[in-house]
Structure formats: structure tokens, C-alpha cells
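User: Before I run my own analysis I want an independent prediction to cross-check against. Here's the chain; please return only the C-alpha cells and, at the end, one sentence I can use as a sanity check.
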Amino acid sequence: MTDSAGPVPGGEAAVVLLSGGLDSATTLAIARAEGYVCHALSFRYGQRHDREIRAAAEVATALGAASHRVLRVDLGRIGGSALTGDLAVPKGRRHPEIGEGIPATYVPARNTIFLSHALALAEVLGAQDLYLGVNAIDYSGYPDCRPEYLAAFEAMARLGTRAGIEGAAIRIHAPLIELGKGEIVRRGLALGVDYSLTHSCYDPDPDGAACGACDACQLRLRGFAEAGASDPIRYRAAAKR
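Assistant: C-alpha cells:
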């Protein structure tokens, strides 16, 4: 892959936020299928582990991203989340509980920070399209995964960038926002996503095995079950599949 700052010939450029998880991998596959030359963007943001960064690199290569950048933004210095601090990762919650309230795994302003970096990269690349894998069905407790939030960010981008002022407004694409996890898995499988490369767990073992009990694992397992498919990643021996 190239890490060039210029546009890549052969199609319109798009910036895709890529965490290495199931949703972002599916989103990258969708953007590619829609004809975009995709520039993947991931973050080391002070999260508990770097397994997802390795997954993002593998997914970017497998799905033919034109470039993959990994930026450092140390949100661990701010804290306030089970993913960046000492708060316990919730486990064993029932499905109805997962969407209630704002969970401890919410990282303050994370999507705003990530989208701002993606917006800057889009301006440099001459891209008008940003893709991210947010979902308002399974993660309704996250305020920065809602359609109204994305619409507000899009409006801000029109007002606060040279591209927006000059008439090349940024478009935000969230193709999974109204899909359930089963629908997302089916969509990805149809597009040839290799989900064995992805990582979703909030609290994996040192060897990378998923815990099977955190919200992300439970939603992922439920999605594969609804899609009538087997999840190809490794789980702890004690995890219920």
C-alpha cells in the first residue's frame, strides 16, 4: 500500500475510519464496492490493547485500501472510559441492557476527535467522502453514533473547512447505521470480508483470544448467530459460543 498524500487515480477518494472490528471492516468493503479508492485511518488512542491496530492493518491489506495511516491521539491521558482507564469493562450483560444508557465503554468525544482527523485527511486528499461504521441499533447508548450527530458534524464541516467554503462539502456515509448485527454480518460475507482478520473484544487475553462476555463480543456472537454463520475468531476456552 502507498502512504502518499495525493489522490490515487482510478476513482474518487474516500477516507474510511478503520478500527479493525467487524463493523469498520464491513464499512470498508462497502466503500470499495461503491467504487471509492479507500484511504483507511486508524488510531492508537490509549486503548487497553493494540490487537485492534494489528487487525486494522490486516483488514486494510485484505480489502485493498490504497493507504492505511495509524495516528496517535492519547485519550488515555484524559481517561473517563473503561477502554482507556481503570474502569471495569462491563461483562455478562443481557442484550436489552446493552442499549440502555451510556455504557462505561463510551470514550468521551472519540468519534468527534476521529472524524476531525478524517476530515483533515480528506481535505489533503481532495476527498469529499468519509465512511465510518457506527450503528444506532446495537449501540444506541453511544451519543456519537446517532444520525443527528453525524448530520451536525457534516454541517460543521461545511462551515469550518476550505473545501466546504469553496463548495466541495464533505459527505459522511454511515452505511450500517440502521442495520442489526446479523444484517451487517450477512452484508460483509456477501462482499467477501474475511472476519477472521477482525477483532471486536474490549478485553482480550494476552494472546488475542476474545473474552466472549463483554458487550462487543456478545453483540458480535449474536450477529453471527442471526446470520446463520460461525464466528471465525478465537474465544477463551470458557467463553460461551
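Sanity check: The CA atoms of residues 26 and 193 lie 7 Å apart.
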